[in-house]
Amino acid sequence: MHSNFILFLNLGGGEIALIIFVMLLLFGAKGIPNIAKTMGKAIREFKDATEGIQRDIQKSTGNITEQINEQIQEVKKEIEKE
User: For residue 5, what are the contacts with CB-CB under 8 A and spacing of at least 6?
Assistant: First the structure.
């Protein structure tokens, strides 16, 4: 996934090295792991939130799907009777 993201940004090796160098200058060697840890937590929380939203949507639409399937079965039965 990371390589796809880098390809999306169209970054070469030189640009990536420059970004890493600037990060080292700004945050130092001790600060980068903390930044990565914080970003990891944020991504995990975002994924958990989106999964919760997807579950809620599936729960709310699940009853509608069942009702539609029941109606389809009733229509099929009516058609078969004729």
Answer: none
At 34, list the tokens.
């903390």
Q: What is the pLDDT of residues 31-63, one digit of tens each?
A: 888 888 998 999 999 999 999 998 888 888 877
Q: Write out the residue range of the structural domain in which residue 48 sits.
A: 2-81
Q: What value, to the nearest 5°, has the Cα angle with vertex 47 and ends 45 and 18?
A: 80
Q: How many domains does the chain have?
A: 1
pTM over 0.85: no
Q: Are the C-beta atoms of 56 and 46 separated by less than 8 Å?
A: no
Sequence letter at residue 23: M
